[in-house]
Amino acid sequence: MSDRYRQLLDATLQHVEGLKARGVRHLAVTPETLRALARPPSAAPKVSAAPLKPLGQVRPPATKSVPMPEIPLAAAAARSPAEKVAAYAALRERALACVRCPQLAASRQQVVFGAGSLEASILFVGEAPGAEEETQGEPFVGEAGQLFTKILQAAGLSRAEVYITTLLKCRPAMPGSSADNRKPTPEETAACLPYLYEQIDLIRPQVIVALGATAVEGLLGKTAPISKLRGQWQSHRGTPLMPTYHPAYLLRNPSLQEKRKVWEDLLQVMEKVGMPISDKQRGFFLKA
Questions:
Q1: Helices marked H in 22-129 — which ranges?
Q2: Phi/psi of residue 254, nearest 5 degrees
Q3: Which one of 60, 85, 112, 250 is least enclosed by Cβ atoms within 10 Å?
Q4: Do both 29 and 130 map to the same domain?
Q5: Which of 240, 202, 249, 247 is nearest to 219 (CA)?
Q6: Range from 12-16, 44-48, 115-119, 122-126 carrying the lowest mean pLDDT
Q7: pLDDT for residue 5 is more than 90
Q8: Do 53 and 30 contact (CB within 8 A), yes or no?
């Protein structure tokens, strides 16, 4: 069995396991795919590596954005804390060994899965790990991550109280660069989305916050400018979702006006989950 065939087989099995964990029981497979799967392994690399789509749950993409299966939030029975921890550990273990994107798997230092509370009311999703995140194995710890932590603290939150993850769990590094990232490809996003879906299904947050245009596109399939979407409530598989600017944007545009926009978005999130908001907090980043 060739390495390429083994990688395709592993990726397919991992994807099907992820769908099963979310309650999907039927898959639509074309006759051409079945015939291709019946070929000897030497011919198998001709089979498309695209994820299998749940029957009757596929929404045709209206734009050229990432094709997303519209899979509802899993309606599984509530897990005990111990069961949730065990399920999370198993999911993380699968992600750490993932080879769905052979190029990323070959170049990564480590997978950056996520961090925070499994009982979090707010789940934050960024784009992908950067160089510092890949080194430390935790999302949002670089310069933008430090600003993000300060924003949380201003809201009266700690990193341990929320859950933080990214669309991609591997760093999409720029060739020849030790620090820069490129935007994830649609294929990479589609390959990694099942892990994010399972994280959301396990944690079941009250609100999801999408940080930046790439996270919004991956979660909602919308390619509209983030400036048009931010501050407007959306829905991801039944969970309220707030799009806002990525902290890296504020590093490039540190005006009070832009900081206030992000803060107003966060105030809406705080209100949605029932957090108390002081007059001082409401006045942050307003001109005197």
A1: 31-37, 81-96, 102-107
A2: -85, 20
A3: 60
A4: no
A5: 240
A6: 44-48
A7: no
A8: no
pLDDT tens digit sequence for 153-205: 999 999 999 999 999 999 998 887 778 899 999 999 999 999 999 999 999 99
d(CA 68, CA 8): 20
**Separation CA 38–CA 33 (nearest Å):** 9
**Which residue's entry shows tokens 């832009």?**
258
What CATH number corresponds to the domain at position 113? Answer: 3.40.470.10
Give CA torsion, residues 36, 39, 42, 44, to 10 deg. 20
User: What is the per-residue pLDDT for 160?
Assistant: 98
Lowest mean pLDDT among 29-38, 232-241, 275-284: 29-38
Q: Are residues 18 and 120 in the same domain?
A: no
d(CA 88, CA 163): 13
Indicate whether 111 and 201 sit together in one domain. Answer: yes
